[in-house]
Design goal:
47% helix; 4% strand; globular; mainly alpha; two-stranded antiparallel sheet; 321 residues
């Protein structure tokens, strides 16, 4: 019979200590790890369009130009045109709109213009300044009403439109047509507003600069040609036999010598390609007709392609088979 181990002998093996623990209870010594260091990442500053970051101080050349444009401390509306076109780099016919915002007793002081320049125009390029000048001060987009004062100024000041001075009806129709053509081309999502992105991505600034320099309005092919307006308006007038400025489906069927098929007529008047802006049910307004005719004249534009695709897409599932 084996002899039981003496308790004392066990204790003597570990004097001053408790009994040994089972291996599973003996934890391996832990290595103390340093806390992880944060990763340094250079994140570019968020760009906020409404916050302009630019040096608003005038360059020596700009200071010289301002001194020449302001020979005295104040200038009148006529002299302000040179400031708008020469210094700001935007169409001079916008000077009347800017002048009305800055003038005091019919004059603009150098200090008031420079204050305006530093706060609104210095950090913007000429395209952005033109957008700013067209829109309402508290708005972020341009709507059709913003073009009314522009067209009024052009009709009274542009040499190529002087012959319309005694025909207010044609002045009104010409102005409407120009605005319809602008929104047809520039308002890409057809919501009745032009954003700054849409304005900058379009050729509208170039057209405004062209009409500002060109005395023959018919040479400004984009938007402002009077000849183009006259063709559009005469075609509408021929179809609108009762001259109520609305076109019925029967009226429209006579377009281009009855060449439109019944199916195409049905699709257009079901407003599949575009909802009519007319306030009379089942009638096409002048704006609706201009929109159709622009799609008919040049079927290669994105707007026209979308229009005629919707005409052909009978089940309106986005696929033409």
């Amino acid at each position: 019979v084996s002899e039981k181990p003496n308790r004392r002998s066990v204790d003597e093996k570990s004097p001053g200590h408790d009994s040994p623990k089972p291996p599973e209870e003996i934890a391996a010594p832990k290595t103390q790890k340093a806390p992880p260091q944060p990763i340094q990442v250079n994140v570019p500053q968020l760009f906020i369009p409404s916050v302009r970051q630019a040096n608003s101080d005038l360059t020596p050349e700009q200071q010289k130009q301002i001194n020449e444009l302001f020979p005295s401390d104040t200038i009148n509306a006529k002299d302000f045109e040179a400031v708008v076109s020469g210094f700001c780099g935007i169409p001079k016919f916008l000077s009347q709109m800017l002048f009305s915002k800055l003038e005091t007793r019919g004059m603009i002081t150098k200090s008031s213009f420079l204050q305006f320049w530093r706060s609104e125009f210095a950090a913007r390029n000429p395209r952005e300044r033109t957008f700013w000048a067209l829109k309402k001060k508290t708005a972020n987009e341009i709507d059709s009403d913003d073009f009314k004062p522009v067209m009024k100024i052009l009709l009274t000041s542009h040499p190529g439109l002087e012959f319309l001075a005694n025909t207010p009806e044609f002045q009104e129709r010409y102005s409407e047509t120009v605005v319809y053509r602008i929104f047809f081309a520039v308002d890409t999502n057809d919501d009745g507003r032009i954003s700054q992105r849409e304005f900058l991505n379009s050729n509208l600034f170039d057209a405004l600069m062209h009409v500002d320099r060109e005395e023959d309005i018919n040479k400004v092919r984009n938007y402002f040609s009077y000849e183009h307006f006259y063709v559009l308006y005469c075609k509408f007038w021929e179809l609108d036999t009762d001259h109520d400025f609305l076109i019925s489906k029967d009226d429209f069927s006579r377009y281009a010598g009855y060449t439109l098929s019944k199916k195409v007529l049905d699709r257009i008047f079901s407003q599949a390609p575009r909802k009519f802006r007319s306030k009379v049910e089942g009638k096409m307004s002048y704006e609706d007709f201009v929109w159709y005719l622009l799609c008919e004249e040049d079927k290669m534009t994105n707007r026209a392609i979308d229009y005629w695709f919707r005409v052909l897409d009978l089940d309106e599932n986005g696929i033409v088979t």
